[in-house]
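Changelog note: in this version the structure field was regenerated for every chain. One regenerated record is shown below for reference.
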Amino acid sequence: MSHLLAVDAPSRKEVFAANRAVGRLALAVTAASGASRRARVHEAGALRARFPNGNGGGSLDAVLVNTAGGMAGGDRFSIDIKLGASARLTVTTAAAEKVYRSLGPETTMGVKLEVGTGGALAWLPQETILFDQARLRRTIDMKLARDAGLLLSEAVVFGRSAMGEAVLSGHCFDRWRLRVDGTLIFAEAMRLDGAIAQRLAESAVAGKSVAVASVIKVPGDGADIAAVRALKETFAGEVGASAWNGLAAVRLVAADGAALRHDLVSVLTTLNAGPLPRLWLN
């Protein structure tokens, strides 16, 4: 007589979790003989890094690729980048990152950036595009040696206006921490929850604009701010800039992603010591 083993069917929650994308990227860069080179690249899941300029020159370029084709609720991604002494690295993404509608779970993204003595990192991903009812939680932790350099840009677009799309509701939480030589010099958190379109329409938030960005430069000073403010007649949206304690910060708000991209290219070209990644200019 045969006996059948009873096996419990997986729950809907377990099936959902098993089909979520998970990606991890750990990249270490060192400098030797005037060139920056990959010391370690660890890729897991959906995240990949490509290096279009090889190992030549004093700076290294990295392009991040999400092979999952976007992010959905329950997906988890983490990026850990470390630059050794005098290493130079520019990071961008192959395309704008899309965060799709979620049935409940959040999409989580954790970014850790560390720059050693004399190193310089330009973190310049293309825009993050949120779809209606998306749920995103992101953290960015930055650690710099006292004489390290950082140029960081992050842009969020709430819906593709050119496609007739709008983000009426959802959840977006973004937390940043920046430490220089172990001292916390910049900390902020942004949270938009529930009726996002209604919140963005408020004058004190975005004044009906749906595309926002922040740029941080360390070291940064009044000369950087003056250079950005000199561009005011060319901006398609609103741009504000300020500097304190060796840091320059620029905030951008625009009616749509195209206008934001126009202004970001102007700001980053002004603040960046080198050319922007080619993918930004295509």
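Spot check on this record: The first helix runs from residue 12 to 18. The helical segments are 12-18, 196-200, 222-229, 257-271, 278-281.
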